[in-house]
Write a structure and sequence with these properties.
The protein is of the alpha+beta class and 267 residues long. The chain has nine helices and six strands, in the order ααββαβαβββααααα. A six-stranded mixed beta sheet has the order 2-1-6-5-4-3, with helices on both faces.
Length: 267
């Protein structure tokens, strides 16, 4: 089954923000309000429900919820970026995996068998929209996450993938795709990338995340129908070729976001 491209490869996944800034908070590197504000980003509001001990329908703000997770024994957070046929970063059970697959992302706690999946709601017309997020917490299996490489492995795979993507995109004539592709590339280049990850992450992890996003943007342009291949059969062939590169980019992102937890466990 082919990998599903992200809805917006230019944006940091919300589960990535929660993982990075939650880890910085749990490591004592940032105050709770700063971590919550960074996770919130440009969204209107985030709430968390389903924490152990909650009453049905009870919801909490991010600052309170992150503090509660610490009390429950959570020592770190891991990112999952699953797609159809590839439960990247997940541990089960099936019900949780299905919700995470539907969302395309999730956060798993280290130190307590808990996971959070975001439910995103967009309100208002185009040009005047606001976003609310409800993080639903539930039990997960206490098991190693699926298919997560080390940062070293991910960086090597990503370098190979970037070379392969460059060759493949040249063959697909994406470079000559015209103004639409150029606008997409320009939109990526004009975005700031200084807030990737959070305090405490090593420069190598930031570099891997940035490279993974660059690959994702190029693949998104290629998957969007740009370039010389325009027939239905050619588009299917293109997606088949690009699918392994999507997987490589997602694996690299997960490895980078999980660095603070995984490198600490390796010591």
């Amino acid at each position: 089954m082919l990998a599903t491209p992200p809805d917006n490869p230019y944006e940091e996944p919300r589960s990535g923000r929660l993982t990075a800034w939650g880890n910085a908070l749990l490591a004592g590197l940032v105050p709770p309000d700063d971590a919550a504000a960074a996770v919130l980003g440009a969204d209107e509001i985030h709430r968390v429900s389903g924490l152990p001990g909650d009453e049905p329908g009870e919801r909490h703000g991010l600052t309170w919820a992150l503090g509660r997770l610490r009390v429950l024994g959570v020592k770190g957070l891991r990112l999952a970026l699953p797609s159809a046929g590839h439960p990247l970063g997940l541990t089960g059970p099936r019900a949780f995996n299905e919700r995470a697959m539907s969302a395309g992302e999730a956060v798993l706690a280290v130190g307590a068998p808990l996971g959070l999946v975001p439910e995103v709601e967009v309100h208002g017309p185009a040009g005047d929209r606001s976003v609310t997020v409800l993080w639903r917490c539930s039990d997960v299996n206490d098991a190693p996450p699926a298919d997560v490489p080390s940062l070293h492995e991910a960086e090597r795979e990503l370098a190979d993938g970037l070379r392969e993507a460059t060759i493949m995109l040249t063959r697909l004539d994406v470079a000559g795709a015209g103004p639409e592709a150029l606008r997409a590339l320009d939109a990526y280049r004009r975005r700031g990338h200084g807030e990737l990850l959070a305090p405490g992450y090593p420069p190598r992890a930031v570099r891997v995340v940035e490279s993974a996003r660059q690959v994702s943007v190029l693949l998104s342009i290629a998957s969007g129908g740009h370039g010389a291949a325009v027939s239905a059969s050619e588009m299917v062939a293109r997606q088949t070729v690009l699918a392994p590169l999507w997987r490589t980019a997602r694996r690299a992102q997960v490895a980078a976001y999980n660095t603070l937890v995984d490198e600490r466990d390796d010591r």
